[in-house]
């Protein structure tokens, strides 16, 4: 700005009325176009100050943000807009001093409205000088950024909760890497497992944690290449501690991408399995030793003694199997308890994010512009996506632990399709996909758990819509033969490579049937669906031709 917007004055006055410091408070000398421009702005507070900081002009945006009418504020010192602690620090006068010396001052901070409430503001103060270079006043532009700051603070708090959760994990080394493989973060578990403090290791290459022969073979770089290409790398191998000792590690590496799909780093989880490996080796050596002793003794014993020995060994093995089964059950329970706890800890901040985003979208904090609306929707989509991943993992853990129960009843197939199809049709319509429901006899029933069958069908139909291009076809129908009912979901989508038809039913495996974008999800949907089907004495199979489409067939016992 080169001048300050003036206040209206008597048009019949014979000369200009000058405010202290030499800045005119009348419209004389300013163009009507410029005056109308300033007075029409409502999203910015624009006003002029004399050299001492007294308010000379006041536009509608200033009235809207700060609550003062023009006649209430003109002539008042602009320090009235600052919290008391800033006034005590002489901050308003320091702003004018910097603007006068450097020509411009910009800051973000809390400001005060007429009613005493505070708002977060972006402030720009520009010095105004006459033709001789004499300071005649200041132009000040203020913008209300309160909503943006609150959204940023909510996101910061959520990220801090997640960071504290990761740092608190002691049994797993959780490491973040930059795209070049340098260590960017290091939790307490990583320090316990590998011996380095965060101050010692952050910024170092990943190769620091590998034996020399693996570094020479390029193994660290190859692992990251595989993780980036296949979305996951997992192995058990030797790793190196700070003191030079080796430990047997279980390692999982996954790529981390931003919302645009660009690689921004990797997440690596490491667990020390040395004790388990050594225990296994000791057990194997003991088993071999016992077998050798038993063979030598059996050769010298009578048939009765041999039978007695065999009986003893059988009893011991039975007891060992029972003990291992108990340990496996306890491990499953511990795993499920851990996943439940992690689910709760992650859901709490995610639900808070969803709640804040919903409030912002509803306009509780004020109307949003287009960019803000897009940002809030992006937050909501990410929050829903993360909750879905957590639910998938928890459901799979329950299934894996055998804790699911089944309410097997005789249920009409058509009734289940009536429940599921309306949930899928809007998705198909949005993608301009032709959706077809083939006739299914109302009398045809299956003996199954209705809720779990509908869960399977919803997963199959959602996948079919997701991987079918616009103007493609998705259909569902049923038929019965030999005491079995088959419900088939067919699509004309991208299809599945022949060598991957069984892999898609494995947990955490994603074949990558992407439509010019990364595949979302955990890779658990089909694995869960097949296990549910088999638990109900049915099955889930697939036929597919890459580039032409797929047909998933759910078979269940006919009632």
From TrEMBL:
Gene3D superfamilies (alphabetical): 1.10.287.130, 6.10.250.490, Histidine kinase-like ATPase, C-terminal domain (3.30.565.10), PAS domain (3.30.450.20)
UniProt-listed Enzyme Commission number(s): 2.7.13.3
Domain Histidine kinase: 341-559
PAS domain ranges (all copies): 30-86, 158-231
PAC domain residues: 105-157, 233-285
InterPro entries per UniProt: HATPase_C_sf, HATPase_dom, His_kinase_dom, HisK_dim/P_dom, HisK_dim/P_sf, PAC, PAS, PAS-assoc_C
Signal peptide limits: none
PROSITE patterns found in the cross-reference section: HIS_KIN (PS50109), PAC (PS50113), PAS (PS50112)
GO MF entry, a single one: phosphorelay sensor kinase activity
Coiled coil regions, renumbered to chain: 290-334
Organism of provenance: Gemmatirosa kalamazoonensis
Pfam families referenced in this protein's UniProt entry, alphabetically: HATPase_c, HisKA, PAS_9
Domain of life from the UniProt record: Bacteria
Keywords: Coiled coil, Kinase, Phosphoprotein, Transferase
Matching NCBIfam families: sensory_box (TIGR00229)
Region Disordered, residue ranges: 1-24
Catalysed reactions, as listed in the record: ATP + protein L-histidine = ADP + protein N-phospho-L-histidine
Listed name of the protein: histidine kinase
Alphabetized SMART domains for the sequence: HATPase_c, HisKA, PAC, PAS
GO cellular component, one term: plasma membrane
């Amino acid at each position: 700005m080169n001048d300050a917007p003036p206040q209206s004055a008597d048009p019949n006055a014979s000369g200009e009325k000058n405010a202290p410091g030499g800045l005119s408070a009348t419209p004389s000398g300013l163009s009507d176009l410029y005056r109308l421009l300033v007075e029409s702005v409502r999203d910015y507070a624009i006003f002029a100050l004399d050299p001492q900081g007294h308010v000379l002009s006041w536009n509608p945006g200033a009235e809207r943000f700060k609550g003062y009418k023009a006649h209430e504020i003109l002539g008042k010192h602009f320090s009235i807009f600052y919290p008391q602690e800033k006034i005590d620090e002489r901050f308003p006068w320091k702003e004018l001093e910097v603007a006068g010396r450097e020509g411009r001052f910009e800051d973000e901070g809390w400001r005060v409205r007429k009613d005493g409430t505070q708002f977060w503001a972006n402030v720009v103060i520009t010095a105004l000088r006459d033709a001789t270079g004499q300071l005649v006043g200041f132009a000040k532009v203020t913008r209300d950024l309160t909503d943006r700051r609150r959204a940023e603070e909510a996101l910061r708090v959520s990220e801090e909760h997640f960071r504290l959760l990761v740092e608190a994990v002691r049994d797993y080394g959780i490491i973040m890497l930059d795209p070049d493989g340098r260590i960017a973060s290091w939790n307490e578990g990583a320090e316990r497992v590998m011996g380095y403090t965060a101050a010692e290791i952050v910024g170092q290459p990943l190769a620091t944690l590998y034996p020399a022969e693996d570094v020479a073979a390029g193994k660290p770089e190859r692992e990251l290449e595989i993780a980036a290409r296949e979305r996951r790398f997992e192995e058990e191998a030797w790793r190196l501690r700070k003191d030079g000792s080796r430990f047997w590690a279980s390692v999982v590496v996954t790529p981390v991408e931003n919302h645009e799909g660009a690689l921004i780093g990797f997440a690596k989880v490491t667990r020390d399995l040395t004790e388990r490996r050594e225990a296994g080796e000791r057990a194997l050596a003991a088993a071999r030793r016992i077998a050798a002793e038993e063979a030598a003794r059996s050769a010298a014993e009578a048939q009765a003694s041999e039978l007695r020995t065999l009986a003893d060994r059988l009893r011991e093995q039975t007891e060992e199997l029972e003990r291992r089964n108990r340990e496996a059950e306890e491990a499953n329970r511990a795993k499920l308890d851990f996943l439940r706890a992690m689910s709760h800890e992650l859901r709490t901040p995610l639900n808070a994010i969803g709640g804040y985003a919903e409030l912002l979208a509803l306009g509780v904090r004020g109307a949003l512009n287009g960019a803000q609306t897009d940002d809030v929707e992006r937050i909501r989509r990410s929050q829903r996506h993360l909750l879905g991943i957590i639910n998938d993992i928890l459901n799979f853990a329950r299934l894996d632990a055998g804790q699911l129960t089944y309410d097997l009843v005789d249920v009409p197939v058509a009734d289940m399709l009536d429940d599921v199809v309306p949930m899928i049709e809007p998705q198909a319509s949005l993608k301009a996909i032709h959706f077809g429901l083939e006739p299914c006899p109302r009398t045809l029933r299956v003996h199954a758990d209705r809720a779990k069958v509908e869960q399977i069908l919803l997963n199959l139909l959602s996948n079919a819509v997701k991987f079918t291009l616009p103007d493609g076809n998705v259909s569902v129908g049923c038929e019965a033969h030999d005491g079995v009912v088959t419900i088939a979901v067919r699509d004309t989508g991208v299809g599945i490579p022949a060598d991957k038809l069984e892999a898609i039913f494995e947990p955490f495996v994603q074949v990558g049937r992407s439509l010019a974008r990364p595949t979302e999800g955990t890779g658990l949907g089909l694995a869960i669906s097949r296990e549910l089907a088999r638990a109900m004495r049915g099955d889930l199979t697939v036929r597919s031709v890459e580039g032409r489409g797929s047909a998933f067939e759910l078979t269940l016992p006919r009632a």
